[in-house]
Design a protein that fits this description.
alpha/beta; Rossmann fold; 3 domains; 12% strand
Length: 480
Amino acid sequence: MPNAEIQFKYQGALASVIKAEHGLTDAEWADLGRRTTEIAQRIGQPGARHPYRDAPTSEALSQAGRIREVAARLLAEKWIDDVVVLGIGGSALGLTALKTALCPPYWNHLTKRRRKGHPRLRVMDNVDPAEFHALTELIDPHGTLFVVISKSGETAETITQFLVALELVKRCVGDDWQRHFVIVTEPARGHLRPVARDLGLESFPIDPGLGGRWSLMSPVGLFPAALIGIEIDELLAGAAGMDAPCSSPDFSVNPAAQGAAVQIGLYEKRAKTMTVMMPYSAALRDVADWFRQLWAESLGKRRGPNDFVGQTPIKALGATDQHSQVQLYREGPNDKVFTILSVEDFCCEMPVPEIPQALEGFEYLKGRTMKGLLKAEERATMWALAMLSGRPTVRFTMPRVTPRAVGALLYTLMVQTSIAGEMLGIDAYNQPGVEAGKEAARALMGKTGPILEEDRLKAGLPEEFATYEHLAARIEESPV
C-alpha cells in the first residue's frame, strides 16, 4: 500500500507464508478482496457515509478552527494548570490515545516550561470514589478547567462527576466559576445542552449520529487535544489522506479492506475468535486500548436468538508482554490474529554504553542501541509467531509517530471496523448490550417511573420491564 504515513503488511496471514491450515489461501484472499472492496465503495458513497467519516471534510475543519480559537483564548489567559476531562468510554479512550502518542512521555510530570505553557491532562474515565476524591485533593480548582463530555447528556457516571466538580469549583472559586467548565454534547437534545445554555458555559456540539467510540476526531477528542498542544489540523489531514485509499475498489491499495479481510476472513474461515493488537512503541500503547473498545463494542453483537458474533480484542505491548503473554500466544490455542504496530524512527537511539567485564556474555550489545534492541525484539517475535508457530500476524508501520501518521492509522482502523460490521451483517454503530446495564444501574440508583419504549427497545429489555421500580425489584431478587 503506497502511503507516506502508514503501511499495512498482510502477508503473515496468508497460507502461502504460515502453516496452511491457519492462513488464508490465495483463492480465499481474492474472494475477500472482492467482498471487502465492494463494501468499502458502498459505505464510502456520500449518502451512505457514517458521520465519523466527515472528520476530514471542510465543515469539520471549520469546526476545528473554532476549537483552536477557543483553546488559544483560554491558554492566553494563563490560569489553566490542569485540564480534567469528565467522560467515560469513547469520551476518554481516544483522547488518552492521542495524549500518549503525541505528547512527550510523562507529560503531567514535566514542568510547565517543558510543556511549552500547556496544561497537564487528567482523564477521569470512572466513578471510583477513592480515585475521584484523590483528584479533588490533587488539583487546585482555581487553576483547573473541566471538560464535560457526554453526547447524550444522560451518562450517569459523567453527570455524577460533573456535579461533584461543580460543587467543588463553586465552593472554592466563587462567582467566576463558569469559566472553569466547557461542555461537549449534542446540539439540541439531552440534559447537558440546557445546562450549557442556561448557565452560560462554553460548549461544542457533537453530531447526534456520532457514537462515543467513533467521536475521536470531533470536539470530543480535538478540543482537549488542542489545549495540550496537539496539532489537530495535522491529525485531521492524516485522516483525510486515508479517505480515498480506504474507499478504493483496488484491493492492493485499500488498507481498511485488507485489514477487515484478514480479521473477519480468519474469524469466519479459521475460527480465529480473538485479535491481539501489540504496539512496539510505548507512544502507541493506548491506541490498542482505544481499538479494543472500537472492535468489541462495534462487532460483538447478537444477530439472532442463538446467533452471536464478534472477535475478542486483546491489548498487548512489545516488548513488555513478550514476558507475560507471548508464551500463551505461541504455544496456547491457535485462535488469534496478531496486529503489530511498528515505528521506524523514535527520534532518539539510546546507545548502549561500554560493557563492564563483570557482565560477561553481553558483548553482543556493544555498539548497539536501545532502539535496535526493541526493533530486534519486534522482528523476532513476529517471526516466531508466524513462521515457527503458524500464528496469523500482520503489521501497520509508520515512519514516525506524528499527528498525521496517528490520524491516518486511527481513521483506517475505524473504516476497517465499518467494513467488518458489514461483513458480519450487523450494525457496527449501536451497542444494545451496553444499554441494558445502563438502564439497570439507573433503576438501582433510584430512578422511578416508566421506562420509555425507545429506551427499553434500545436496551433489549423484555416488555415486562415497564417501570424502573419493577426493573430494580427484579434485579434485587436475582441470585447474582
